[in-house]
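Appendix B, example 12.
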Amino acid sequence: MFNSKIIGLGKYLPENVVTNADLEKIMDTSDAWIQERTGIQERRHIVKGDGNSTSAMGVKAAKIAIERAGLEPRDIDFILFATLSPDYYFPGSGVLVQEALDIPNCPAMDIRMQCSGFVYAIATADQFIKTGMYKNVLVIGSEYHSGGLDMTTRGRNISVIFGDGAGAVVLTQTKDENKGILSSHLYSQGKYAEELSLIGPNTGRWVPEIMELNDPEDISYYPYMNGQFVFKNAVVRFAEVIQEGLEKTGWTADQINLLVPHQANLRIAQFVQKKFRLGNDQVYNNIQRYGNTTAASIPIALTEAWEEGKVKEGSKVVLAAFGSGFTWGSVMIQW
């Protein structure tokens, strides 16, 4: 049996910055309103024709992570790609990354767990490495939200939140049982699936039916979120799954060197920080600059924290996420 450890990290953000002031020009909102409810000041959005896509951003982040790991793309044995916004309905984006990195016949799997996608993907990679099936696993979280948002006053409660971007990590084997991923904890609660969802089109309302109706007022194409309900559930589940991780590892909250939460809403992160009495230096947030990048948010934040020297040898790092499904989870890492 092996443990798995992260040996390379990378991120990519589109160059186009969309500020709250920019959104004020196209919908009835305000910088004060957005910051009060979400903490977001700006986000990155793809510009049509700039060459970016969900997989393309993932490739850019992956190349950085692989280089920092001291590996070549051909050294990757398995690709896990977490996203809710794949390039195509099918096939998944993971195989597009495999082709772009020119890794012959490398298996690739998409993880469709939305905001919890990266946590689920890391936990999955850990299991493949622990059993010895794969040595070097590339895990990517990438999202292209902006092209599918309702950028009008009608959609403002959701559209002001989301940004585009990608993050990636490379995991490998270690025989040191005290290093790497020590535990992971995953949950779901499908009874609330439609409280945070994008319902259409779907196999119950397929393309010919939608085309026949041709209803300009149909908003099922856009994401739906029961904001207050999601917030109330998120703060509870975040706390529960982090506490479970602490109990499993025997850590106490004051021993956490860095908590990297999914960047859903700054107010959720602040609530969790207060719950565990963590200092500002123990929690990493970057939602202010990038918005909610869903499956990409944790790897982007983790990469930035590592680049800034906040994650180093011996650090106790906690990853935690909550999102659509409902799904949630945590990963405990001894760096």
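The first helix runs from residue 20 to 24. The longest strand covers residues 3-12.
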